[in-house]
Amino acid sequence: MSSRVTENFIGFYTIVEKEIMRLVRIWVETLFPPIITSALYFTIFGNILGQHIGKIDGYSYIEFLTPGLVMLGVVNNAYSNVAMSFYMTKFMHTIDEMLVSPLPNFLIVLGYVIGGMFRGLIIGSLIFLTAMFFTPIHIAHPWFMLLIALLSAMLFSCAGFINGMIADSFDSISIIPTFVLTPLTYLGGVFFAVSALPHAWQVLARFNPILYIIESFRYSMLNIRQANIELAFAMIVLFVVVLFGVCLYMFNKGIGVKS
Amino acid sequence: MAQTVLQIEQLKKVYANGVTALHGIDLNVKEGDFFALLGPNGAGKSTTIGITCTLVNKTSGNVIINGYDLDSQAADAKKSVGLVPQEFNCHVFEPVIRVLLTQAGYYGIPRRVAKVRAEHYLKKLGLWEKRNDQVRELSGGMKRRLLIARALIHEPKLLFLDEPTAGVDIEIRRTMWEFFSEINNNGTTIILTTHYLEEAENLCKHIAIINHGRIVENTQMSTLLARLHCETFILNLATPLLQLPIITGFTVRQTDSTTLEVDITQTQMLNDLFAILSQHNIVVSSLRNKANRLEELFLRMIDKKQEVIT
């Protein structure tokens, strides 16, 4: 490895390490709440209400619900981790430490995205483990499941990075999750099959990236083909490429970080 | 002949709100120099530093650092620069040593090398005992010194000190001056901005004064000080003076019963003044400049009272 490559790797590793250390340092706020929330979901929606819903595509409601809740944790936590961490870096001006350094912009962006992915996947794994206490777990396509989890975490880490860049207050960090991310999540098929929606809503739902994530992940676990999985996978990859490109473009321009 | 370590050509910055912070300035700083970049608030100092350290986007112009173009050879150029910012910007919940190791990481410095350097600079700046404390627990002076250690961790050739001693007590300030002189003597080029003009006069070899986004002076410190045509001294008298006698050839003002102010031009001698005062039985117990010499020049230049400068 040339010295420049080695230096860049050390710089990249430093950002990832910093992000993971941040997660570990505040583990009470980062790791516990999703476990408690998902346990409540499994109890109330899965066990109590689920008994009255009946089977969906041959699975009990709680089994149907599990992939959606796991991805809900992955998506929300990947997003919020990067949005908050990057905004705090701006707020405290510690971003200057990176901006003055010779580290290439794409590695700075990638470092934050990997940090968000790490948290998303840790939380997803914890929810997965929590689910084991409530329902039998099925994994039909383990490698595809891992791939979808990775891509989804990356997609929403990128979205969180964009939020962190354009945010100019702590309120800005919560506005998008509240008014955009939460509705997309709830309309993305976490709690129901999109085929149950009226036709017009089904068409609209196709513009929602979370729908492709949930459908793909549900397929990887339960082998339920609610939609064209190949198309869903392609859409996820497309969203990842586009959003990472937007992150890089904005960071290169210094939007939200340079005057 | 010393190499040019910083070359700024026609640097212009217009902010989004339409304010022109820099009107196409040119600036050259030689290797090994201790360079003062002075100006009033809003003159363009921080914008110049911000662009050079890639914290601010330029509108046009070129910046070449240590021979590397900041646009086309950014990584090499940036490795040559260290910045001690005006505002404190360390992660306050991190331990002191972690701040340095993280910064070293961004510069691609292996951890074992970073640890050695961190120990060196923390000891040099009197922070070694605090290495495991959280940054928020440090005093104001310690935080300032931490910024200096952080800026030096990658051992840059060019160091920007943006008001490094602001809010620091005089004892620590003098210690920091000694440290700056030491690293400058060891080969680090330093560009200093400060509102303590005594600091600039004592430390710097060259000076540039920037005002309203334009360089209004750029010369050697000694050359600039030599251009001071007139200095005002304050004389403290040993005994009260009821009425000021006529002091031929000098402009003297009595401010109170034991204090005189005297304007001394370059052609006048203090000995002559003292001789006249002695004739009138006026005993001077002490004497001082009314203002720091550089301060007088600076204020006159900023006020555009150029007539007092020959």
What does this structure look like?
- The complex is a heterodimer of chains A (259) and B (310).
- By secondary structure, chain A is an all-alpha fold.
- Chain A has one domain (3-253).
- Helices cover 78% and strands 0% of the residues of chain A.
- Chain A has eleven helices and no strands.
- In chain A, helix 4 packs across helix 10 (209-222) and helix 6 packs across helix 7 (142-166).
- Chain A starts with a helix and ends in a 6-residue tail after the last helix.
- Chain B is an alpha/beta fold and 310 residues long.
- Chain B folds into two domains: 4-220, Rossmann fold; 227-308, Alpha-Beta Plaits (2-Layer Sandwich).
- Chain B has helices at 45-52, 74-79, 96-106, 111-124, 140-152, 170-185, 197-203, 221-226, 270-279, 293-302, and strands at residues 4-14, 20-30, 34-38, 60-65, 68-69, 81-84, 158-162, 189-193, 206-211, 214-220, 230-237, 251-256, 259-265, 284-289.
- Chain A binds chain B through residues 3-4, 6-11, 13-15, 17-18, 25, 92-94, 96-104, 254, 258-259, and chain B through 15-16, 50, 53-57, 74-76, 78-79, 81, 83, 85, 87, 89-93, 102-103, 105-110, 150.
Beta percentage of chain A is: under 5%
What is the CA-based Rg of chain B, rounded? 23 Å
Count of individual domains of chain B: 2
E-strand count of chain B: 14
How many DSSP H or I helices of chain A? 11
Order of helices and strands of chain B: EEEHEEHEHHHEHEHEEHEEEHEH
> For this structure, what is the CATH homologous superfamily of the largest domain in chain B?
P-loop containing nucleotide triphosphate hydrolases
Structural class of chain A: mainly alpha
* Structure annotation, total helices of chain B: 10
Q: Helix amount of chain A, in percent?
A: over 70%
- Strand % of chain B is 25-35%
